[in-house]
Amino acid sequence: MTNLAAFPTDAKSMKNARVELKTSNDLKDVLREAAMAAGLDLSAFILNAALERAESVLENQRRRQLSEQSWQQLNQLISEPAAPTLALKALMRRRNSNNGNHSK
């Protein structure tokens, strides 16, 4: 997992984008206290936490992507559905016969 230390911080040109947030004073105090406990300034602490979360979200997204072979298998299963089993046919017959017996 990447952390803020993996990004160059010595070059001013690397820090040319700004992120602004609004929060309550109480939440800012909690974040500042946690940043101090971690030995980071508030911006570095928030960026590090946001980056960890972003990487987690992106990793989860990547895991949902199918390989080409899996994609082809999925499409084949969708386009050529399996024939219903005897159990499924019996269930559908029971369901259809029960629907006809209800009076309103």
Blueprint of the fold:
Blueprint: H1 25-38, H2 42-63, H3 68-79, H4 86-101
Task: Kindly summarize this structure in a few lines.
Helices cover 62% and strands 0% of the residues. With 104 residues, the protein is mostly helical.
Question: Can you walk me through this structure?
Answer:
The radius of gyration is 28 Å and the shape is elongated. It is mainly alpha-helical and 104 residues long. The chain contains four helices and no strands. The mean pLDDT is 83.
Quickly list its features:
mainly alpha, 0% strand, single chain, 104 residues
The biggest sheet, with number of strands, parallel, antiparallel or mixed sense and barrel status, is:
none
Class based on secondary structure composition and strand pairing: mainly alpha
In total, the number of strands is 0
Shape: elongated
* Run of helices and strands: HHHH
Over all CA atoms, what is the radius of gyration? 28 Å
Strand content is under 5%
